Amino acid sequence: MTESEYEGKKILLVIAQEQFRDEECFVPKQLFEAVGVEVTVAAEFTETAKGMLGGTIKPDIRISGASMDDYDAIVISGGPGSRAYLWDNKKLQQLVKAAYAKGKVVSAICISPVVLARAGILEGKKSTVFKSSETLHELKKHGALHEDREVIVSGKVITGRDPNSAEAFGKAVLRALKQV
């Protein structure tokens, strides 16, 4: 993947304010930036966000201030903070719906595919998620077809299973981004 293929491409990377999973934020972000994709980090607030393994990052914007008109893809990192900060975030669900409606790349990893399910875009689609009774229940409740695989690409919707999937997930997002 060369830099010129991604010239002008922009990704909105959404993380939980606290307890995001470090690898699921930093590994894809590094992959995206290495090929010249502009990454904007969004969280509930712009104060420094803290990962569950101790990593920190200062969000560029608040989720409430983001518009999918400005991005080619949305990537939602996981970690336990996703349940508290992202699952029920109505503005984030609106961003997911807008990205999907506009044919942009919509992706989430770990427990964050629940956000996609709650936004209504996983219905009838194969997807993966970090397995727990709660995440599996949420996917089923919203009509998603769960498969226990590292990464699942369903059109321009991409789901990743866990921190070990972070690199494969990031690469799948980049492949899909070429088609946007």
Total DSSP helices: 6
Order of helices and strands: EEHEEEEEHHEHEHEEEH
Question: In what range is the share of β-strand residues?
Answer: 15-25%
Shape designation: globular
What is the subunit organization of this protein?
single chain
* Helix content range: 25-40%
| Distance between the amino and carboxyl termini | 15 Å
The number of strands is 12
Structural class: alpha/beta
Strand order of the largest sheet: 6-3-1-7-8-12-11
Give the C-alpha Rg.
Answer: 14 Å
| pLDDT averaged over residues | 96
Outline the structure in words.
The chain has 6 helices and 12 strands. It has 180 residues and is α/β, with parallel strands linked by helices. The strands form 3 sheets. It has a 7-stranded mixed sheet with strand order 6-3-1-7-8-12-11. The protein has a 3-stranded mixed sheet with strand order 2-4-5. A two-stranded parallel ribbon has the order 9-10. Strand 9 (126-127), helix 5 and strand 10 (145-146) form a beta-alpha-beta unit.
Task: Give structural attributes.
180 residues; 23% strand; alpha/beta; seven-stranded mixed β-sheet; 12 strands
Concise synopsis of the structure shown:
By secondary structure, the protein is an alpha/beta fold.
Q: How is the secondary structure organized here?
A:
Blueprint: E1 10-14, E2 18-20, H1 22-34, E3 38-43, E4 49-51, E5 56-57, E6 61-62, E7 73-76, H2 81-85, H3 90-101, E8 105-109, H4 113-118, E9 126-127, H5 133-141, E10 145-146, E11 151-154, E12 157-160, H6 166-177
Parallel strand pairs: 1-3, 1-7, 2-4, 3-6, 7-8, 8-12, 9-10
Antiparallel strand pairs: 4-5, 11-12
Helix pairs in contact: 1-6
